[in-house]
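Our preliminary data section would be incomplete without showing what the modeling component actually yields. Below, a chain of 438 amino acids is followed by its predicted structure, encoded as tokens that our downstream tools consume directly.
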Amino acid sequence: MDQAMTADSVRPGAGNQADARSRRLVTLASLIGTTVEWYDFFIYGTITGLVFNKQFFPSDDVFISTALAYTVYAVGFVTRPVGGILFGHFGDRIGRKPLLIMTLLIMGIATFLVGLLPTYAQIGIAAPLLLLLLRLLQGIGLGGEWGGAVLMSFEYAPRHQRGFYACFPQVGLAIGLCLATGVVAILTKSLSDQAFQSWGWRVAFLLSVVLVAVGLFIRLRILETPEFERIRNARQVVNVPVGEVIRDYKKNVLLGWGARYIDGVVFNIYAVFTIAYLVTILHYDKTTILSSISLAAFVLIFTIPIASRWSDRVGRRRVYGWGAFACGVIGFPLMWAMHYSGSAIVAGLAIVLALGVVYAPVYGPESALFCELFDTRVRYTGISVVYQVSGIVSSSITPLIATALLKANGGEPWYVAVYIFIVGMISAISTYFMRRTF
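Predicted structure:
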């Protein structure tokens, strides 16, 4: 590892090896590609609390049907580490670009097929099983996508602007979420509830084929990153990247998992769990809540670059750590506002504040923060292990945990707020103990 550190420390900056045009094209490709992937992934979470709990998991108990739907939602996160390690292995061996094209196709095809699935009433138990299979494929595709897209931007960027350039795949999340919730909000507003439940929800999934076509066209035009070309030309490619990550980067992986915890919890509480919580349980207007999540995602498009550029100036650990702390603390007043205001508008503003503003200092600098934990030779695998494996706990089961905590507290939100606070402290402390990175 010491030899790798030395080699990495003397290389010329990636920004000096790539001209501005190439950098812009790579940034655009990463942005559009991750937008497509996140749209595909989030459209399931958006539809879950509105359709899947009724059409694919029918039950007389709303908590049970919603929990079953969220269980399949969680499966997508469980398979993300498989995709991350698999595509990370080949991404560290043969390059970043080829794997990004493959992940885009896997995700796009799986999402399109969800829009064609028969419901439980039509084919019985086969319906949720097929939905589960396609969710597995979605998870594998996204598991490989995130790491590759982040690396394309990070490894092309000038050293002093890596936080800023690496944040554009993160902006893709915001745009993807904005599109997913926005499309569903338009459909629920323009269609009757019967029409939306019958066929309208399918439109949101079928539309993904257009986004995939655009993303594929742009990704076919980009070149491999200068940093990977350097290690390939120097014959420094690692045979088994995951083995080296486990052997030499254990502390970085553990701290990365701890830091990532608040990211998954905050996002899935405010962007996924609140849909079922506010619409199905508290009976707020679903279009207002979906529109609020879309607005939060739209605000995040601008706050992510601001927070990331700030991290280039004052340090990523500082921005991320304080952001994690703020996310943990603010859960109490926001949960109070959502539950006790009795107003869908107030609840929506709480979502916008949490997801659009307070979340940005965490999610914006995150990609560069994790990239700097690993040497170029194992970076694809390393960041995928940190981001995707931690997602099993931080992201996949968060809606399930929140639903269980809500029921345990008699429908009151305080157990959920305490959970967010504890996670925020874990992430802030983990970030504090991160030392000088690669």
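Residues 1-18 have pLDDT under 50 and may be disordered. The radius of gyration is 21 Å. Preliminary results of this kind motivate Aim 1 of the renewal.
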